[in-house]
């Protein structure tokens, strides 16, 4: 589990001092990865023994063990694709386990209430603007394809044409942003600009430390495992499909009429092979 997940799991058992430590760590994760016990204690206004007790509360033998766990996670994120290939040479087993774990985490995270929160801005928006990074691109395409079938005014924003396309974005619209570490500058800065314009932002990202979270009215954190040389697209696609299904259910007859009209046009144009 990541440190934010461990903190969330321990939430009710944390003392006031430990909550201060948690807030410092969530605000500045590199301090935990590369700082000292004294630096962390000083930043939180507490003592070295309190930091050690905090590490114990999260399930570690001490601060050094907690720090090693964090550094290992960072190292995994920063591995070059060529290095990841070598780690996958043992066969499909690790990939299968990683994907199964990521999907299980997704369904734990996306409760009916959370899905409702994610879907509400999309249901109520005049137009929907979809922004994406690289790893999340497959999810963005799935979201665009699905939403376009059930409602009008859905746009997938490409980086090279975003300045032109987003000229039509207005208050009353929604922006759905999909991006994971390493976050694309374009997706983060464009989401921030849209939020300033008054658009409601929905973020599909990878944790509470994502730069998209402070911008979002609703957000969800996915576990994105490395699969072969690259990070998996499966969690983003699955999250997109869940969101489309909830939006379609919310639109009800309007979605059905739109799908029927589209199907009729496909039939009339002979788009499919008999």
3D architecture notes:
- Helices cover 59% and strands 10% of the residues.
- Strand 1, helix 10 and strand 2 form a beta-alpha-beta unit.
- The mean pLDDT is 87.
- With 274 residues, it is an alpha/beta fold.
- It is elongated, with a radius of gyration of 21 Å.
- The chain folds into 2 domains: 76 residues, Orthogonal Bundle (Arc Repressor Mutant, subunit A); 159 residues, Rossmann fold.
- The chain has 14 helices and 7 strands.
- The strands form 2 sheets. It has a 5-stranded parallel β-sheet, sandwiched between helices. Strands 6-7 form a two-stranded antiparallel sheet.
Mean pLDDT: 87
Helical amount among residues, as a percent range?
55-70%
> Could you give the order of the helices and strands?
HHHHHHHHHEHEHEHEEEEHH
CATH topology of the largest domain: Rossmann fold
Q: How many angstroms does the end-to-end distance come to?
A: 49 Å
Which CATH architecture of the largest domain would you pick?
A: 3-Layer(aba) Sandwich
Strand content: 5-15%
The name of the CATH superfamily of the largest domain reads Glucose-6-phosphate isomerase like protein, domain 1
Q: Give me the number of helical elements.
A: 14
Main beta sheet, described?
A: 5 strands, parallel
- pLDDT below 50 for ≥5 consecutive residues: which ranges? none
Radius of gyration, in Å, reads 21 Å
How many separate domains make up the residues?
2
Jot down its keywords.
274 residues; alpha/beta; Arc Repressor Mutant, subunit A; Rossmann fold; 2 domains; 5-stranded parallel β-sheet; two-stranded antiparallel sheet; 14 helices; 7 strands; elongated
